[in-house]
Backbone:
């Protein structure tokens, strides 16, 4: 079994789509081994998204991330499976049936986040969860 990190972003949370997204996660066979609703401060968001520090969207991204749901998901091939379920970063280019196509409204407000590699998951999961918080 592999673990990946996932976020239901503030736009999807504010639009009332968190329950629908969670239902899809379970329906697609993921086990949720960690889940929290939280407020991410600007400083916490900057630390989390540090790899994008030099990108032009960094300030907007770190301002945007506030009330969200963070999760650790587990499944066979969880990283790729979650990325496939999320869809392309740009909801306009995402395939039908993906989370971002259904719930995203723009590249910046695209409903979900997920680790893109095992190394990324190894950083992202413990950023929000201690080992004692994961089932």
Residues:
């Amino acid at each position: 079994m592999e673990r990946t990190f996932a976020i239901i972003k503030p736009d999807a949370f504010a639009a009332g789509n968190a329950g629908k997204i969670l239902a899809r996660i379970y329906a697609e066979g993921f086990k949720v081994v960690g889940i929290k609703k939280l407020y991410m401060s600007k400083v916490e968001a900057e630390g989390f998204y540090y790899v994008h520090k030099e990108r032009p969207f960094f300030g907007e991204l770190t301002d945007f991330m506030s009330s969200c749901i963070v999760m650790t998901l587990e499944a066979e091939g969880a990283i790729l499976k979650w990325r496939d379920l999320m869809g392309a970063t740009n909801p306009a280019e995402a395939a039908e049936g993906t989370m971002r196509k259904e719930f995203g409204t723009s590249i910046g407000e695209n409903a979900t986040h997920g680790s893109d590699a095992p190394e990324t998951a190894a950083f992202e999961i413990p950023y929000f969860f201690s080992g004692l918080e994961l089932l």
